[in-house]
Design brief:
Largest sheet: 2 strands, antiparallel
Number of domains: 2
Number of helices: 7
Oligomer: single chain
Low-confidence stretches: 1-12, 55-59, 163-168, 173-179
Number of strands: 10
Strand order of the largest sheet: 1-10
Strand content: 15-25%
Shape: elongated
Helix content: 25-40%
Radius of gyration: 21 Å
Distance between the termini: 11 Å
């Protein structure tokens, strides 16, 4: 079954499109995707931390007291140096796994693959994680991870880096029509 996508992308000037088994798909991290990711991970913050890490934890933080810098080794929490507390917190940060790539690709594909009832409520999806996983290999794995980050960045901060601010409205621009092929079950 072929579906034609022609809706204007006002907030996303360039879709993040990738190919699986010769079929083109869009990755869109909208509220639907984030809600599905919350069901899987408990919070979107955990997903974002897994993807982007906490840069502040990687650097030695500038700790101040009354606007004066203090030595991080001298500060203690429950008699443990702050530096050790931060290092332990860094170790506990979730590390991305192959299954996470599958979950993130699947969630990003839901925007174009939801099945709706007559009340416009989602009753299911046209694709399964199994079908998506079958199309993923180590040949396309790195590219898919790059596409995930690219799409999430576009959807978290649409237009940034393109001379616009996040909440600024953009003029509607005709987009190239992409034919999406839905996998059959």
């Amino acid at each position: 079954m072929t579906e034609l996508v022609t809706m204007p992308e006002v907030f996303r000037p360039n879709d993040t499109v990738f190919e699986l088994n010769g079929n083109k798909y869009r990755l869109v991290y909208d509220m639907l995707a984030f809600c599905e990711l919350e069901k899987i991970y408990g919070s979107v913050d955990e997903v974002l931390g897994m993807l982007f890490g906490d840069v502040a934890q990687k650097l030695e933080p500038a700790v101040t007291y009354n606007d004066s810098p203090i030595n991080i080794e001298e500060v203690k929490i429950d008699n443990v140096p702050l530096a050790l507390v931060l290092a332990e917190k860094d170790k506990q940060q979730r590390v991305a796994k192959h299954s996470d790539t599958l979950e993130l690709i699947w969630a990003g594909m839901l925007h174009d693959n939801a099945i709706y009832n007559s009340d416009d409520e989602i009753i299911g999806y046209k694709l399964t994680k199994r079908r998506v996983a079958e199309a993923m290999t180590f040949r396309n794995y790195r590219e898919l991870n790059v596409k995930i980050v690219e799409a999430i960045m576009k959807d978290l901060a649409p237009g940034l880096g393109e001379g616009e601010t996040k909440n600024e409205e953009t003029a509607e621009v005709p987009k190239e029509v992409i034919t999406l092929v839905q996998p059959t079950q």
